[in-house]
Amino acid sequence: MRVAALADVHGNAPALAAVLEEVERERPDLVVFCGDLTWGSLPQETLELVRAMAIPARFVRGNADRMVGVETEGRGPWMTQQHTSEDMAFLAGFEPTVDVDVDGLGLTCFCHGSPRSDEECVTERTPEARVREFAAGVDASTFVTAHTHLQYDRRAAGLRLVNPGSVGLPYGSEPGAYWALLGPDVDLRRTDYEVEAAIARMRATDDPRVETIAAMLLEPPSRDEVIEDAERRVFAG
Predict the structure, then answer these.
(1) Hey, which end of the chain has fewer CB within 10 Å, N or C?
(2) CB of 34 closer than 8 Å to CB of 63
(3) At what angle do helices 210-218 and 195-203 cross, to 10 degrees?
(4) What residues contact residue 99 under an 8 Å CB cut-off, 6+ apart?
(5) CA-only gyration radius of the chain, Å
(6) pTM for the structure as a whole
(7) C-alpha dihedral, 10 to 97 to 25 to 178, nearest 10°
(8) Which letter, b or e, does each residue of 204-217 get, where b requires 16 or more Cβ atoms within 10 Å of its Cβ?
(9) CB neighbours of 229 closer than 8 A, spacing ≥ 6?
């Protein structure tokens, strides 16, 4: 079993399209989306790509997926309007975690924040004591988490911890779309796409936060900034 792990697309359809082209060439057995799929400027275009996939897929619910139709401030009302009732039902069917027996890695738990919370920030510097806490009671040797938009592969507390990075809004990295191919080892990937063209498509929408997203795509926060903030807050929506 080989699995492509994609996370934090955040409605960046051009980035997702580029990654899916590469995924299709690799022909994994399964694609697991690790949360925060449509919460961005191009949610409908993102859903169209997902629905057209030939490779089987499973979906983890992220904190942003959970907010669609619930969040009533800021970008929330706009985001809700971009989703049909069918879209809302699709997001509501996302799983809290997905467990897959991956070749070479054993039982692998895919989640958004951690198995205990979709808002827990797990980084390459998360102390082993906290790793043991969130892994307690979960029969897995590998954990694939997302949420922090930082790609890494580390070992801690006798476990393998992987973040595939963000497809649509990476932090602490050069521009591109980040993901991972799992089995029999961990292959961290980066896919090029036309970031400026993607931003132009986003700006053609009436997304109230489009300029914030554009700025973060062009000048993302540094890796150290993200990790320090994440480890200070631990749980962050």
Answers:
(1) C
(2) no
(3) 170
(4) 107, 108, 109, 110, 140
(5) 16
(6) 0.97
(7) 40
(8) ebebebbeebbebb
(9) 236
